[in-house]
Write a structure and sequence with these properties.
Length: 263
């Protein structure tokens, strides 16, 4: 049986940490779920790690549908979340629904949408019509040009208050999960305490309900500068399988992330 949003909510309610990794193909989907990964995120980071692009901005809906289908066919247990790529969730709630429906038809159980309170109306529209949504706040790679680079968000009191407000607004709008990227651990902790839905952190400290990283990063495959929040789990592991199992173990036992991986 495939993990459902209800299962993830129950895990959050009893304080069991949730493990997530990005995944883009069938072979890794099977390996990751057998190693105990709860959520497979078909992230638009595939633009970087598969397509060799500098940003995620050129990833298309067709790309996402194709890779979501691959992950869905390769797995049977893990919860599948798929990113709505740049330009597919910004036009109108109706247009977003049509695009999200393609990802759900391809096998996703939830779509992820970048954006704060500006996406509340769209998230309400989708969730009332049967499409679960994970909202993504903090560092939003699709807004790289507005943010002026890949920078830590929520460092000033003003920014932190705004992110906290966004989180509450998005939960009220019907978001089923909230992903927070590259924000101070103390702020992510406060947001997690305030919300009922599970929070997912990447560079957001150990107190989020779930942790996610890009698969290639935990396998030590990165070009260019390594982000502070990455840990190479191939160090000391005899196989890819063991590295992923160690990642899951460390997330579940709150050994990862350590303060050195956060802001
Ligand atoms: O596309 C992606 O990989 C993401 C990250 C937050 C993991 O959205």
């Amino acid at each position: 049986m495939r993990t459902t949003q209800k299962t993830l909510q129950k895990m959050r309610d009893v304080g069991e940490k949730i493990s997530a990794l990005t995944c883009y193909d069938a072979s890794f989907a099977l390996l990751l779920e057998n190693a105990g990964v709860d959520i497979l995120l078909v992230g638009d980071s595939l633009g970087n790690v598969l397509q060799g692009e500098k940003t995620t901005l050129s990833v298309t809906l067709d790309d996402m549908v194709y890779h979501t289908g691959c992950v869905a066919r390769g797995s049977s247990k893990a919860f599948i979340m798929a990113d709505m790529p740049f330009g597919t969730s910004q036009v109108s709630p109706e247009n977003t629904f049509e695009n999200a429906a393609e990802l759900i038809s391809a096998g996703a159980s939830m779509v992820k949408i970048e954006g704060g309170r500006v996406m509340a109306e769209t998230i309400k529209f989708l969730s009332l019509r049967g499409i679960p949504v994970c909202a993504h706040i903090g560092l939003m790679p699709q807004s790289v040009h507005m943010l002026g680079g890949y920078k830590v968000q929520g460092k000033s009191t003003n920014q932190a208050n705004k992110l906290l407000e966004d989180a509450v607004i998005l939960e009220e709008a019907g978001a089923g999960m909230l992903l927070m990227e590259a924000i101070p651990a103390i702020l992510a902790k406060e947001i997690t305490k305030k919300l009922i839905i599970p929070t997912i952190g990447i560079g957001a400290g150990v107190d989020c309900d779930a942790q996610v990283l890009v698969l290639y990063d935990i396998l030590g495959i990165y070009s260019g500068k390594k982000s502070k929040f990455i840990k190479n789990f191939m160090d000391g592991a005899g196989s890819i399988n063991e590295a992923v199992e160690n990642y899951v173990k460390e997330v579940k036992s709150k050994k990862f992330p350590k303060s050195e991986h956060g802001f």
